[in-house]
Amino acid sequence: MKKTNIKLMNKIAAVGTDVFDRSVYNVGEGVEDADAIMVRSASLHDVTFDKSVLAIARCGAGVNNIPIDRCTSEGIVVFNTPGANANGVKELTICALALASRDIVGGVNWASTLTENVAGAVEKGKSAFGGCEFAGKTLGVVGLGAIGGMVANAAEALGMNVIGYDPYVTVDAAWHLSGSIAHATKLEEIFEKSDYITLHVPAVAATKGMICQKNIEMMKDGVRIINLARADLVVAEDVKAALESGKMAKYVTDFPTEDIIGVKGIVAIPHLGASTAESEDNCAVMAARQLDAFLTTGNIRNSVNFPSIEMPTTGRHRLVILHQNIPEMIAKTTAIVSGKGINIADMMSKAKGDVACTIIELDGSIQNADDICKTISAVRGIIRARIV
What we know:
The chain has about 400 residues and is α/β, with parallel strands linked by helices. The protein has 13 helices and 16 strands. α3 (about 85-100) packs across α6. The two termini are about 15 Å apart.
C-alpha cells in the first residue's frame, strides 16, 4: 500500500510527528510528492503546491504565512491550532504587564554595565528605573478567545479591574470568564476606560491599524499598550508619536519591526509568545491529529478555510467532496454515485461562507474510485473529490 507523505516545512516537535503511524505515513523535511504539509513559521506564499497536497496544518493559531485564498481554490484544507499555545501567550502577557509598568529592561541593561561597588551603585541609581503597579488599574482586553479569556481571568486574579470586548465571543469562551469581568459593548469603551490595553485578535480588515492616532486620542493619558497578537494591529508611526508626546507611556510588542527597534518607550520581544516547549508540543500534537483525521476519514476540525465537519466512521469507504456553496451540489454528486450502482449509507454536508464540504458514506466495495472522483470533479462548482 502506498504510504501517505507528510512534508515538514519547519522543525516540528517529535511528540507531534510521532502521532503518525510510520506503517502508514512518510514524515520528514525531505519528503517528496507531499499529501500534506506541517508548518510553523515558514512562509508558503511563494510555494507552488503539488496537486497531491490535500491539507496544510499550521502549528499555531495565526496563518498569515499561508496563502489561504489560493489554498481554498486548489482544494487544500488549512488547519490551525487555536488554544494550543494559549497558556504560553497568557504567561508572556502577564510578563508584558510588568514590562509596561516598570523600566525592567532599562534597569537590567544598566545593571549589566556595573563593574565596581555594584551594591552601592544599584542603591544610588535604581530610582531611574521605577514605575507603577498594575494592581488596581483597569485592563482592557480586546478579544476574549482562548488567549484573551485566560489573560482576563489572570489579570483579575492579580487585582486588576478588567473590561473585555469581543463581539464574536463564543458561548463556551464566555462560560470560562470570571463573573467579575466587565463587558464592553463598544471598542471605544476599552479605549476610554483602560489604563492598560492588551490585544488578542487576528489581523483582519476590521482589526488592522486599530491602534491609530484617532483611537489613541480617545485613550487615557499615559496608557500602556500590549500587543502580542500581530504587528499589523498598530500603526507604528502613530504609536511613536504618542510615546513622544507622553500620551502613551509604554508599548510592549512581540513583533519587532525595523521602524520600532530602539525607540524609547517600546519594548520589543522577539516573538516569544508561543516559544515554550509546552506550547510547541501542544501545537504539534493538535496539528498532527487534525491532519491524520482528515487524511483518513475526511473529518475537518479547526480549519480556517473550510467548514468543521465530523461524521462518525463505520469502516466503509467514504467520498469527501470540497465544493462551492451553491445549489444542486449534493443532488448532482449523489446522482453520480447512484449512477455508478453504489448505495449511499450516510451523508453529511456543512458550509462555510462560499465553500462547503460533503461527506458521503458508501456501501460495498469500490472498484473505480479514480473514475468516480474524476466524474464528480468535472461538475461545475466541485473543487476536489476523493475516496478514503
